Amino acid sequence: MHAMQYEITLPADYDMGIIRERVAAKGHLLDDFPGLGVKAYLMRERGVLGSPVNQYAPFYLWNTAEGMNSFLWGPGFQGIVRDFGRPVVQHWTGVAYAQGAAADGRARVAVCERTPVAAAVHLPDLVADAARRTAQLATEEGVLYAASGIDPRTWELLTFSVWEHAEPRTPGDIHQVLHVSQPERDRLRKGRQW
Q1: Cβ-contact 111, 163 below 8 angstroms
Q2: Is the dihedral of CA 118, 121, 127, 128 positive or negative?
Q3: What span, in angstroms and rounded, lies between the C-alpha atoms of 181 and 133?
Q4: DSSP-derived 3-state class of residue 186
Q5: Using CA atoms, how far apart are residues 182 and 167, in angstroms rounded to an integer?
Q6: CB of 188 within 8 A of CB of 160?
Q7: What's the pLDDT tens digit per position in 86-109?
Q8: Cβ(157)–Cβ(114) under 8 Å?
Q9: Using CA atoms, how far apart are residues 140 and 58, in angstroms rounded to an integer?
Q10: Of the candidates 43, 63, 67, which has an alpha carbon nearest to the alpha carbon of residue 55?
Q11: Percent of the chain with pLDDT over 90
Q12: In this structure, what DSSP letter does residue 152 have?
């Protein structure tokens, strides 16, 4: 599993209705994309759910590197580049994935928590703890799914979860979910990824 996200921060007075319309018109285009486990079309709106910024920040869990590469080199991502410029694409190697207690619910919000990994941290213990935490998070009421990953370039641990209610009980940046494409969510390998 590969986790991926790009964040497009927009001006404070940007009409976020434009992002909503974009997702409503184009979100379905990845509903059957090969290699894609799930894409959550995420948005942060200044002053809503504690967000200090306006931001479009889709989050992906890929089943295959080929699917991820097909998207990045293909017309979908080129549309982002054309309309917003080429954003930095963050990437995390999968640590764990878990279906949630509300796996079939309607996604309303997602939470991204990023934690720096200190040089002194014992990595095997860290990833084992992250896998346990991901499994535990998925048992929370209202969680559709949870995942964790590590960026070994910056040594950052990511914990990501999608919720069916707007009051998630976990730390991190809260995003509104505008649409979910999940052509291969059922194929994402559950549990730890090593």
Answers
A1: yes
A2: negative
A3: 25
A4: helix
A5: 23
A6: no
A7: 999 999 999 999 999 999 999 999
A8: yes
A9: 23
A10: 43
A11: 97
A12: T
Number of residues in the chain: 194
Where do the domains of the chain lie?
2-189
Instruction: Give 71-78 contacts, CB < 8 A, sequence gap 24+.
Output: 71/30, 71/33, 71/36, 76/29, 76/30, 76/33
* C-beta neighbour count of 99 within 10 angstroms: 16
Which secondary structure element, helix H or strand E, spans residue 33, and what is its range? none
In the DSSP assignment, the letter for residue 19 is: H
**Hey, what CATH topology would domain 2-189 get?**
Alpha-Beta Plaits (3.30.70)
- Could you give the 3-state DSSP secondary structure of residue 69? helix
Which two three-digit tokens encode residue 48?
Answer: 């809503």
pTM passes above 0.85: yes
Which pair of tokens denotes residue 40?
Answer: 């959550």
Q: What is the mean pLDDT of residues 118-145?
A: 97
Q: Kindly give, in sequence order, each residue whose CB lies less than 8 Å from that of residue 22, ignoring residues fewer than 6 positions away.
A: none
Q: Summarize pLDDT for 168-184 with one digit per residue, the tens.
A: 989 999 999 999 999 99
Token pair of 22 as six digits? 């974009």
pLDDT reported for residue 83: 95
Q: Has residue 166 got a pLDDT over 90?
A: no
Q: How far is CA 67 from the centre of its chain?
A: 16
Check: CB of residue 62 under 8 Å from CB of residue 39: no
Q: Which amino acid is at 26?
A: K
